[in-house]
Amino acid sequence: MKIAIIEDELLAVNYLRNLLDRQSIVPVTEMVILRSKKQAIDFFENHAADLIFMDIHLGDGMSLEIFESVELFTPIIFITAFDEYAMRVFRHFTIDYLLKPFEEEDLHQALQKFISIRSNYDPEPVLKSMSSLRQADSPDVMKRFMVRDGNKLKSIDEDHAAYFFASGKYLFLTTTDNQTYIYDDTIKDVIHKLNPQLFFKINRKFIINKNAIVEIIKHSSQKVELKLSPAPEINSNVFISKRQITECLSWLKS
Q1: pLDDT tens for each residue of 93-134
Q2: Would you give the DSSP letter of residue 143?
Q3: What are the CA-CA distances from residue 94 to residues 6, 48, 89, 97, 134 (Å)?
Q4: Secondary structure E strands in the chain
Q5: Where does residue 167 fall: left (phi above 0), alpha (psi -120 to 50 degrees), or beta otherwise?
Q6: Are 139 and 194 spatial neighbours (Cβ–Cβ below 8 Å)?
Q7: Does residue 206 register a pLDDT over 70?
Q8: Which among 46, 56, 44, 58 has a CA at the least distance from the CA of 129?
C-alpha cells in the first residue's frame, strides 16, 4: 500500500512515519512525503496513493486548496492541531482525523476505520464537508466587482456577472449583456469571495451565476452539460466536473 503524508513539520512527519513503520494493520510498501501544498499538487497531477494523511494547515496555505487544482478520490485521514476545525469538518466524515498531539493508539484506530470502510469509500461527504469549511472561513462576500474598461474603472453588480472563466494566465468576467473583462484575481481565490447561493465553481475553468443557466443537458450520470446565456466565446461546451455533479445539482435546486 502506498501512503502519502502531506505535512510541513519535519518532527510531525518523522513521528507519523515511525508509527506507520511499527504498525501491522495495513501493509505499507511506499511512503511519499509532501511538505507543501505545491508539492502535493505537483505529485497528484501525475501520481496516486492508496491512503493520504493530510495536515490542514501547511506553510503555503490550507491543504484543502489542493482540491481546487487536482481531483482526489483517495481516502484521507486529516491531521490538525485545531480542534474547532476538526469538530466542524469531520463530524460526519467517513474516514477519520487525528488531533495533534495524537498517540499511537489513535493512529491504530484510524487505520482500523480505514480498513473497514475502504471497499465502500465514497468521497462525496468529504468534498461537501470541505466545501462547507471553506465557505464558513471565507470573509464577507463581494457584491460588486471592479474591472477596467479602457482607461476607466467599471463596477459590476453580482446580479450582472454571468460567469467567471479562466483562460491561460487570466481570469475573465462575462456580464449578462455579453461584455467580457479581465478580472484581477484567480479562479481558486475568487470563488471564496462570492455569494455561494448565487455562484458555483462547476469545473476548473468556470464559476457560473445560477441565473446564467438556460438549459441543463444530462448526457449521462457522469456527464452533465450547462448551456449559459450569454454563450461563452471559447469553451462553448461547458460541463460540470464529475465530482461536482451531485453538489451542483443540489445547489441548483436550493
Answers
A1: 446 778 888 899 999 999 998 888 776 665 555 555 555 555
A2: S
A3: 19, 20, 11, 10, 19
A4: 2-6, 30-34, 51-55, 57-58, 61-62, 76-80, 96-99, 144-149, 152-157, 161-167, 170-175, 180-183, 199-201, 206-209, 213-220, 223-228, 238-239
A5: beta
A6: no
A7: yes
A8: 56
Predicted pLDDT at 238: 93
Q: What is the dihedral of CA 85, 63, 195, 229, to 10 degrees?
A: -150
Residue with C-alpha cell 461563452? 232
Beta strands (DSSP E) in 75-127 are 76-80, 96-99
Which pLDDT value is given to residue 65? Answer: 81
3-class SS at 98? strand
Q: Which amino acid is at 233?
A: E
Question: What is the structure's pLDDT at 63?
Answer: 83
